Each structure stands twice: as C-alpha cells, then as structure tokens.
Amino acid sequence: MTIDFQLPNINVTSLKEAPIHLFKQIQPHGVLLVLEEPELKILQISNNTWNIFGIKPENLLQTKLEELLDPFQVETIKAALFEGNLEYINPTKIWVRKKGDDYAVFDAVFHRNSEGILILELEPAFSRENIPFLSFYHLAKASINQLEKTSNIREFCQIIVQEVRKVTGFDRVMLYKFDDDGHGSVIAEEKLESMEPYLGLHYPESDIPKPARKLFASNSIRLIPDSYAEPVQIVPAINPVSDRPVDLTNSILRSAAYCHMEYLHNMGVGASLTISLIKDQKLWGLIACHHQEPKYVSYELRKACEFLGRVIFAEISAREETEDYDYRMSLTHIQSLLVEYMSQEENFIDGLVKHQPNLLNLTSAQGAAVCFGEHCTVIGETPKEEDLNFLVQWLKNNVEEEVFYTDSLPQIYPDAERFKNVASGLLAIPISRRNYVLWFRPEVIQTVNWGGDPNNAFEVTQSDGNVRLCPRKSFELWKETVRLTSLPWRSVEVKAALELRKAIVNIVLRQADELAQLAHDLERSNAELKKFAYVASHDLQEPLNQVANYVQLLEMRYHEELDEDAKEFISYAVQGVSLMQTLIDDVLVYSKVDTQAIAFQLTEVETALERALSNLRQRILETGATITHDPLPTVMAGSTQLMQLFQNLIANAIKFRSDQPPQIHIGAERLEDEWLFSVRDNGIGIDPQFSDRIFVIFQRLHTRDEYPGTGMGLAICKKIIECHRGRIWVESQLGEGATFYFTIPVGGRERERRNGRKTQNHLFGRGQ
C-alpha cells in the first residue's frame, strides 16, 4: 500500500538521506575484497566468487591474496602499496587463478576508505592492454578543436555530450547542471532520434538527494552496467577489525539504492554511466549516460570519458569566468566610485545614494535601502518604511551570515508577499547587528518545464513492515508557473555586495573614531565652559550685591534730598540688579543640569510634582490656578531636576495665562520604550512658527514689561530632558492654550548607557 509521505510517523528525511555508502552489497559483474595490511589477508569478500572464480567465498576468507594471485603479482602490488600513491597502479591488469589451472584477466583498482581500510575491486578486462596515452590525447584534442569554434557555453556543453556519446555508444547522453536551490536542469543532450527529449527540463532535488551528491563529489565516475541485475552481499557484512559495515564511498562496484534502480527502470534505463563535474570543490553538474539495454563500459574507457569531461569542463569553467569578467570589472569600478563618494561625504549614506553610479548600479537592482539607526534611506522602488523596519527586524532575528540573498523572499518571509511587485528578490548585507544595506528586485513570473510533477517526485510505501521511498513513474512534461520570484542574483553581484560591506564597515569605524575624538574635545570644552560659568556667576554675585546695597543705602541716607527723578533712577538700578541676580541664578541652574544628572534613581513623579507645587504655592493662590494630574509612574530620573522641570513648565503656564484662571493638567501615558508626559494649560498660546525658538537659551517672545523673566526657563527644561535621553516639544495655537510634551525612556539614562555598551559590543561583532 502507498502511504502519504507527509504522515508524522514517517521520517521522510531519514529515508532520503539514508547512508548509501554503507550498503553491504555490490553489483554482480565484479568482485570486491577487503584486505588487511601488510599481509593482504582477505577479511571480507563479495558473495559471487563461485560464479566468477569457481571458488566459494568461505574458502577465501582469512586467506592471503596469494590464494588468487601468483607471488610475483603480489610482490609487485605490495611494492606499489608501500609507495603510497594508489593512482600510479590504478588500473592494474592482474591474472586471477580460477578453480583448476585456468586464469582470467581483470582490471584491478585499489583504494582506501575513510578508515584507512584497503579495498580491492576486480572487473573483467575486455583486453589485456591498457588504452595508450595518445588515445586520450587525440580524444581530448579533437573535442577542444571543436570548442575553439564557438564561444557559447550552451554549445560547449552540447559538444561534451556529443563526444561522450561518440566514445561510449550510449543511447542518450545529457549534461545536467545543479541550481542553487538543489534542483537541476538538462542543458545539453545527445540521443537517439526515437527517444523522448529531456533537454530543457527541470528535475527536483529529491532525484539526486544529498547522500548521492556527496558520493558523486567523492567518486567522479559511476557505472551501473545492468540496472536489472541482482546485487550480491559482502560476507561477512560486518568488518571483523572495525566491527562495522565497510565504507564504500570510493567503490566502483557499490550497489545503487533500490530507489535509484527503480528510478532508472521508470525511465526505461538498462545501464547508466555518470561523470561528475566539479567546480570550486563543489558538484557543479553531471554527465549522465543512459542506455536502454544493459551495457558494460571498460574501466579504461570510463576513465577516458572522465578525462574528456574534465578537460572540456575546465574550458567551460574558464569561459564562464571570462563571461563574468567584464561585468565583474564594471562592478569593481562602481564599487571604487562608491567608496570614494562615501569618503567625501560627511554622512557615508549620502555617498551611496546621491551620486551616479549609486547603490542600484552595484547589483542591477530596482530598489535599495540603507537602514541605519532608526531611519531608512531609500532609492528606486522599495517597500514602505514600515515594511522595511519589520524586514530588518526579521533579518536581525533569523540571519547570521555576512550576506543574505534570495530570489523568492515571500517563500521564507510571508509578509513580503504584499510588496512582491518591488521586492520578491532580496540581497542584504549587515553593517552591524541592527543596520543593513538592502537591494530589491521585483517579481518576474516564469514558466518552468519539469520532467514529471515535482510536487509528487516520490512516494513512501510500506510493505511487510518495511518503509521505503519509491520514485515517480511519470517523466512527462509538467509545466509550472512560478510566481513570487525575481531574477536570480549572480555570484559576482553577491561578491560585489560583500566587498562594499567591508568598505562601509571601515568607513563607519573611521567615522566612529572621529566622532569619539570630537565627543572627547566637546566634553572637555563643555567642562571648561561650565567651570567658567559657575565661577563667573559666583564672582558676579558679590559686586552686584555691593551695587544693590550702596544704591539702597544712598536712597535711605539722602531720601529727603532726592527729587522724584532721582528716586525713579535708583528704583531702575535696584530692579536691574535684581534682574541680573535672577539671570545669574538661572545660568547657574542651567550650567549644573547635566552634572546633577549623574545620580539617577527610581523617582516617584508625583513626589517631584508635589515639591514643585509647594514652591509655587504663593503664585497658585494669587492666580486661583487649578492643577490636576493623571496617576503618575515611577521613573529612573534625577528627582531635583524632575521637580525643576515641572516647576518651570507650571510657572510658565501660570505666567502666560489668559483672562480666565489658569487650568493646568499633567498627563502621563506609557508607550513602548518610554513614558510620555504632558502639561496642558488654557493660557494665551504660542504661534506654531515659534515652537522651536522658545527652547533656545535667552529667547523671549514678549517684552519684560509684558511678562517678566530671563528667557531661560524652557532652555533649562530642554536640557533636563536631553540629559534624560528624552524629547520635549510644544503643540499650541494663539489664544488656545498650549500643551508641552516630554518623554523619559523606560529605565532612563542608565538603560541608555547599557544599550550604548551593547551597541559598542555588537556594532561590528557579527561576521567580522
């Protein structure tokens, strides 16, 4: 019966990734021996020696290789093994003693597995002579001569399959290339005219699962001469020395998985030959040869095909590199210009987006964004800023690599489906843990031709308690319309993005050093200014006090002799001194704000408000002001500064009152990471054009005759809030009262300091 492979009680992954290199069977056309060195004692042997040698396997186990070979051959083999390079002796023609006095010629291939165990594989030899080197040379030269006539890589691949089919005589030869997602496609094919074409068809990843690919990468040539032949067991199944099944990764006789054999049968294949194509130490593709009937290919001819494939594929790799060269040089030039622009701008982001060429040109993208801090700078067609913020958060939580790219973002990040028209493809590089440069490509709807339905690439069957994978039976053309996918990112574009990342990180580090030095200089300058303001203010108090005292003494002593003008002049002098003293007091308060901010602690806002109201009690009584407030929280703040803040804001509300008694309300609202406070009044209001000016030191909107004061109150409020890492602003209209808002972060300045340390620790931590 057939079982749905989605059932939770069946682990499909374990079935697909079964350790096929540990199979205890080989194909029946050859013999496998596992030997113990240095005596070459036979520890394991395939259970087909009677059919091939006329000797039962149990009569060979635990004997030495001399039981099969003459002493001269054994000594020659031992000498070659002692040299250590098995490639020099593979393949070796050996004469095996059969039952009686008869001998048979075999191609012998030696190899050691991952455990260092020596394995000898024997295949019947069609001739007693090796193919001479000149045959390899002429074979390769004829093919390369054809390659020189074309510069098209697809035509190159077609030449490969033509030459391999000409040499081997297989009914069909295909060149199969793997995609980045694990699927593959047939990019070249040579076949009998009567056979159904597979050229251009895609095949799902499950057709060649990971264990098979690993073996193809390790063992570059693989022959199955008869897909219907019954495999033979290795006896004993467990190696008596290692006490586990022998590793057959490099075996040329290893039996294929039952699922693969059934796959070949469903395709009508009686024999197959597969040659691996390796590029940059990865499996780039395969040359797959199929024959409708069983077909044996000698070891020499297989190696000739492997040699041919490697030589021609090396030429293809070189042509691929050449095709990319011009584009790579163009991207390198763009990258150097971007680095130059960034170095010239005060803000490196401007260097990436304000000039030509810009970020878009580096990857041929239709949109790009630099998300740095709390803001995203965009160019071209991009998602909305809110979507960008969520995307960056997703990248931060899910991506650890130095570069991330996909041509189908909605498949792994479902929220991207709503902006598929601009960002079905994403290339992203992290500048730090929270800052990214992003490139976007729009959706491109495509039609993909599959060799059979990829959604039903296999099924799981269960029979007599055994569960196994079975391949699909149909390879007919199956068309799929692919959506939510962009044009793929080329490797040269990904590499260009990585190089840009290095440049940006270097520039950010340099600017961070410069900012740190500037901050140090500013801190020193500010400290000197504060000291000057503090000392100057104290030194000014004494002469002012003397002026005030002597002027008042002059008025008292000569009161009778002064006329009205003199008395008025003395009054002006006393008022000026009083104003000057008030101004000095305010300057002292302003200069000490950030020095007092060091000792932040948990502070009940209501307590700070009550202290402020107590200080303003007389003014409140005189004006009949009504003051109300919401329930107020506890925050991390300086209690004295918080009291000063409320005192200044409420005093302003009382001072700039309308004809009605002042009505003042203090509100508090919890936001995500901060508290939002408000002080709302029913006073004369403020013209919105002056909403920023009123927080500047010594700035006044009214004359002192209208409203007395120094113009320092709101500047002090602003400085207090900045010390708490918050914000302050006003919303008002003339004649409609004013509402002053300010925020205090949850945790206050101490939280910001901790976050600052984390940012410093993580800014260049990942991917460096």
UniProtKB/TrEMBL annotation:
The keyword Iron-sulfur does not apply. Residues 152-310 form the Phytochrome chromophore attachment site domain. One of its GO terms (biological process) is regulation of DNA-templated transcription. Pfam families: GAF, HATPase_c, HisKA, PAS_2, PHY. It catalyses: ATP + protein L-histidine = ADP + protein N-phospho-L-histidine. Residues 535-748 form the Histidine kinase domain. InterPro entries: GAF, GAF-like_dom_sf, HATPase_C_sf, HATPase_dom, His_kinase_dom, HisK_dim/P_dom, HisK_dim/P_sf, PAS-like_dom_sf. GO terms for molecular function: phosphorelay sensor kinase activity; photoreceptor activity. SUPFAM superfamilies: ATPase domain of HSP90 chaperone/DNA topoisomerase II/histidine kinase, GAF domain-like, Homodimeric domain of signal transducing histidine kinase, PYP-like sensor domain (PAS domain). Keywords: Chromophore, Kinase, Phosphoprotein, Photoreceptor protein, Receptor, Sensory transduction, Transferase. The keyword Kinase applies. Its EC number is 2.7.13.3. PANTHER family: PAC DOMAIN-CONTAINING PROTEIN, PHYTOCHROME-LIKE PROTEIN CPH1. Photoreceptor which exists in two forms that are reversibly interconvertible by light: the R form that absorbs maximally in the red region of the spectrum and the FR form that absorbs maximally in the far-red region. In the N-terminal section; belongs to the phytochrome family. This is histidine kinase.
